[in-house]
């Protein structure tokens, strides 16, 4: 019997007790897109669809212990990094990425939850910019995150998005997927894949739903999954965009919580 080796994707992120974002969303997205998910937890959150009521950081020493356990045994092809709550954990993750050199690194610079709650200490922003982002194959900021990274006001149009391109390139990542989902007045949801010498525009019709909890985690994890399967970057991003679009389209088939519900990671099982 032919044995197909499933590509392994590691997610390094915080836990969402409500199950819609963070590690839980990552594992669902990686699994739904055909890869094997393993995880390193950087923080515990008391969280649901209505907001974050508490954050309990994991020590950087234990984060490193988890990373050593995973990398010493599993053939991790791609790594997705999400919530890193403080500079010590960022430094530890960067150190271990340099030590184990996975083939692909996707960084979702998680700073604020869908509910508006702050998830990254402001003092850790510089560590994120200078220690981790330059190691990434692609970073996936939304507009508020991108604005915080380069210290400008949040764009209100696609024209203002394009004005950020040069400064985002200077962060040092190989590419940047600038997500335009926050331009809620636009008919379409347009993302810009910023490469070293070109720009790729990916646009889909905007979907009217309040169930968007975990969209950023889900998209970045799907991209990491597709990269691990051997797709080139543009194809992996396009496939990830298709996946998250369908997960949002089918989000209202779920009825989870009283606030911003999650996307439907396993829409294929119900279609």
Automatic annotation (TrEMBL):
Alphabetical list of InterPro entries matching this protein: HMP/HMP-P_kinase_dom, PM/HMP-P_kinase-1, Ribokinase-like
Residue ranges constituting the Pyridoxamine kinase/Phosphomethylpyrimidine kinase domain according to the UniProt record: 16-264
Keyword ATP-binding listed: yes
Pathway in which this enzyme or protein is active: Cofactor biosynthesis; thiamine diphosphate biosynthesis
GO molecular function: ATP binding; hydroxymethylpyrimidine kinase activity; phosphomethylpyrimidine kinase activity
Gene Ontology biological process terms in this record: thiamine biosynthetic process; thiamine diphosphate biosynthetic process
CDD domains referenced in this protein's UniProt entry, alphabetically: HMPP_kinase
Keyword Repressor: no
EC category: transferase
EC number: 2.7.1.49
Keyword field: ATP-binding, Kinase, Nucleotide-binding, Transferase
GO CC term, one of those recorded: cytosol
Pfam families: Phos_pyr_kin
Record protein name field: hydroxymethylpyrimidine kinase
Organism from which the protein derives: Aliivibrio wodanis
This protein's encoding gene: thiD
